[in-house]
Amino acid sequence: MTPPPGRSTLPSPGRLGLVAETASADLARLGWTGEADVDLLWSLSRSPDADLALRTVVRLAEALGDGWSELDGVLRRDPLVRGRLLALVGSSAELGDHLVGQPEKWRLLAEHRTALPTPDEVRSDLLGAVEATAETGECASDGLFRAALTGPKAVLALRTVYRDHLMILAAADLAATVENEAVVPYETVARHLSDLADAALTAALAVAVATTFPDEPCSVRLAVIAMGKCGARELNYVSDVDVVFVAEPATTAATRLAGELMRVGSSAFFEVDAALRPEGKQGELVRTLDSHLAYYQRWAKTWEFQALLKARAMTGDVELGAAYVAAVTPLVWNASEREDFVPEVQAMRRRVEEMVPPELREREIKLGRGSLRDVEFAVQLLQMVHGRGDESLHVQSTVSALSALADGGYVGRDDAANLTASYEFLRLIEHRLQLQKLQRTHTLPPFDDDEALRWLARAAHMRPDGNHDALGVLRQEIRRNAQRIRRLHARLFYRPLLESVARLDSDTLRLSADSAKRQLSALGYSAPQNALGHLTALVGMGARKGRIQSMLLPTLLEWLGDTPDPDAGLLAYRRLCEEVAEQSWFLRLVRDEGPVAQRLMRVLGSSEYLRSVLVNAPEVIRLYGDGASGPNLLDVDPTETYGAILKSSARYEDPVRAVGAARSLRRYELARVASADILGLLDVPEVCRALSSVWAAVINAALDAAVRASVADRGEPAPATIAIIGMGRLGGGELGYGSDADVLFVCEPVPGADDAEAVKWANAIADRVRTLLGSPSQDPPLEVDTGLRPEGRQGPVVRTLSAYEAYYTQWAQPWEIQALLRAHQVAGDQDLGIRFLLVADSVRYPEGGVSDEAVREIRRIKARVDAERLPKGADPTTHTKLGRGGLADVEWTVQLLQLRHAHRVPALHNTSTLQALDAIGAAELMSPGDVDLLRQAWLTATKARNALVLVRGKPTDQLPAPGKVLSAVAQVAGWPGGDAGSFLDNYLRVTRRAKNVVERAFGS
Question: Where is this region: Adenylyl removase (predicted)?
Answer without folding.
Answer: 1-497
